[in-house]
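Posting this for the archive.
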Amino acid sequence: MAGTSTPSWANWTSSPETYGASTPKAANTAEMFQTVGPILAIAGMATSAIGAYYAAKTQQYQLESQALTNDFQKSMSELNAKNAEFTAQTILESGQRQIGAVTMRAGNVKGAARASMAARGIQAGVGSAADVIATTDLMKEVDVNTINARSVQAAEAQRMAAVNSQNQAMMAGVSADNARMGASTINPFMASTGSLLGSASTVASAYYQDKRMAAYENWLAKQQ
């Protein structure tokens, strides 16, 4: 467009105050940064790669530790399930022993009652004598049914606890397997390599940009 001038390299050299042209001192400074810059960039790349490696390694250790914790929980849940089943069986066995004791005691009571009746000349199974025997049998049955109901109820509660523990063990095992699978997919070396490649691209771009700027600064310095 007429009346509009585009800054050229000649303009920069003829009017350094206006266009910010560099002096030889500025050119030397640019060269220094051109040398130091890549060194600092490479150091940053190495630091970033090391950080990526140890970050991945830490994540891997955390997943492996989680797997071990889940394994422990699985073992404890399995042990709790076995203990609950053992307790259930013990309760049932104890109930059977109690029922046996009640039955034996009822038999002794009936035997003593019959002996007493016979000694007094009372005919067993007739009248009040029959009522005594029937009452003894009824009390025995009530006690047996009560003991059996309580035993079964307590045993079922323990077996329900055993089922819950088995489910917890199964879930803990699944969690442990998932944690190990996650740990196996982490590769710290690949993480550090990816970090290096990403940083290298950025550093290369900055390096070539600095090279262009340095060449421009040198050209400007020569125009002084």
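The radius of gyration is 47 Å. The helical segments are 9-14, 16-19, 24-119, 128-184, 188-222.
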